[in-house]
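Example record

Each entry pairs one chain with its bound ligand, adenosine monophosphate.
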Amino acid sequence: MLPNFLPESCLDHPALTAHFTLVNEKNISRLNEAVRDVPDFPKPGILFKDITPILASGELFRLAIDEFVSAVGGESPTKIVGIDARGFIFGAALADRLGAGFVPVRKKGKLPWETHGASYTLEYGEAHVEIHRDAILPGEKVVLIDDLLATGGTAGAALKLIQQLGGEVVCLTFLIELAFLEGRKNLDPSVRTVALLTY
Ligand code: AMP
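Structure tokens for the complex follow.
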């Protein structure tokens, strides 16, 4: 295991780059193998990417969070915003790892206090998401996380909510991106967007 306090001048060393590339590729391929494809769920024609086998393995779950930490890079967010519901699982673990707070973006009617909301269309239906009005302070550095980017409707709406509250989204990250759906077109191109697995 390499220490995480190496000076920046060392980070370009070929041996080190090779080491990190190797570790990363191995992790990514293990996560990839664990994702279970479920055809026709929740309705015909949808190939559902089931991430519960990753959650069910202590090792793979930790490894996924390791990779999310790498994706966030040197940023120091004070809030991690997770999208209802699988974004909560990864987001809460990431928040704990980074020493940041966790904020849920929830489906309509689930948050108890004053909310700010947005409507959007998704791969299989219509939806509305909400955030507590006081969840993000103006100028706060935020990471937005979800399990999967499909059409980008959900993440695009969540991104707007955070930006409208004055938050600065420093990284938008997903475990999975369904690239053929071109969801990135619905996202702010100025926000760094990282998916660990792409299909
Ligand atoms: P979208 O707004 O189209 O990007 O949809 C993203 C949200 O829907 C995420 O919160 C995912 O959990 C869920 N989702 C959409 N399509 C799939 C899929 N094929 N497999 C698993 N989850 C999906």
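DSSP finds five helices and nine strands in the chain.
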